[in-house]
Every structure is written in C-alpha cells, then in structure tokens.
Amino acid sequence: MIEIASFQQEDFELSTLRVVLTILFIIDCVALITVIMMQQGKDRGLGAIAGMSSGDTYWGRNKGRSKEGLLSKLTTLMVIVFVVLAVILNVNF
Predict the structure, then answer these.
(1) What three-state secondary structure class fits 42?
(2) How far apart are CA 35 and CA 33, in angstroms?
(3) Residue 44's pLDDT is what?
(4) pLDDT of residue 67
(5) How many CB atoms lie within 10 A of CB 60?
(6) What are phi and psi of 60, to 5 degrees?
(7) Alpha-carbon span 80 to 78, nearest angstrom
(8) CA dist., res. 93 & res. 87, Å (int)
(9) Lowest-confidence range among 3-7, 17-21, 24-28, 39-43?
(10) First-to-last C-alpha distance (Å) of the chain
(11) Whole-number mean pLDDT of the chain?
(12) What angle do CA 55, 42, 81 make, to 5 degrees?
C-alpha cells in the first residue's frame, strides 16, 4: 500500500511539472512570435545604393542600445529558452 501511494505521488508531481513546463513553453512561443514580428527588416534601403554600410551611420554604431538591439537580445534569450524547454518536454520522465 505504501509503495502504491508513493508512485501515485511521484506521478502527480511529474504530471504537474509537465503541465507547468508546457504552459511556459506556450507563453515563450507566443512571446517569441511577437518579438520577431516587432523587428524591422534587415534591408539597407537606399544606403546600399550609396555604398554606406550600417556600421557607418549613427544608428548602426548604437544599435545595441536601441529598441532594435533590445529586441535582438530578447529574441536570442527566448530562442534559448524555447530550445531548452523543447528538449526537456521531449524527454520521457
């Protein structure tokens, strides 16, 4: 009787953990889609015709401190969380 109760407790804890991780995974997916859609395209527009690279402009030099830089860092972080959660949820525990 004691062994059966302990197995049921472990199964409940693991299923609860799986549900929590799945909810975090879904939230991360939606946030990742939102952040990617908020980013601007990487085309250089008329600067490519004039021969200017993005590093030559004020915006190109300070991109890390701008909204685009923040979105890029958030995207990287969310992709890492996405991959880690996908691997954890794929493991049969």
Answers:
(1) coil
(2) 6
(3) 60
(4) 85
(5) 13
(6) -65, -35
(7) 5
(8) 12
(9) 3-7
(10) 23
(11) 79
(12) 105
Please tell me the distance from the alpha carbon of residue 64 to that of residue 78, in angstroms, as a whole number: 17
Q: Which tokens go with 39?
A: 């980013």
Segment 18-40 shows an average pLDDT of: 94
The H-assigned helical ranges of the chain are 2-38, 47-50, 58-61, 67-90
**pLDDT over threshold 60, residue 41:** yes
- Both structure tokens of 86: 């996908």
**Tens of pLDDT, residues 65-83:** 688 889 999 999 999 999 9
Distance CA 83, CA 37 (A): 19
Q: Which two tokens stand for residue 77?
A: 């972080």
